[in-house]
Amino acid sequence: MKTYKKHNTIKRQAKPNLFGHLSLLKHLYFAMLMVLMVSCSNQPKNPEPFIKHIEGYWEITEVIFPNGEKKIYKYNDTVDYISLNDSLQGFRKKLKPGINDTYFTSEDAEALVLKIENDSLNVYYSTAYNSWKETILEANPEQLRVINENKVVYLYKRYTPINLDLSE
Q: 56 pLDDT exceeds 50?
């Protein structure tokens, strides 16, 4: 006959784990850093520097629709010319580029007014038939990005004219 010894189970008190506390501190630090980064990135941007880049010739390169679909423009037979005066009023006109800085156009133009409102740079257009608003999302020497009231985003690049040496 076999006898079994009864073992007493000793309950141990959990010792403080220094590494567990360090891990928790790292997670808290990381979370606080993320909150700080997100809150800083949501600060309103001053759109005033965009104004100096808007005037000029622009060629559309891409349209992004609200559902995420994109339309890429590899070739354009027209460019947009935007002209502004000191009081931030002007016009936008469609031009057909020729060679050596020549352009063909009709007399049609869209009057426009730029206004900074709620940390955004808005463009108010008007013709004899309609009026609408677009918001400048970005404007720099090479790129112009705008969004309209239907949440369609238009991306433009600065147009480079076709110059040929015809001296021969």
A: yes
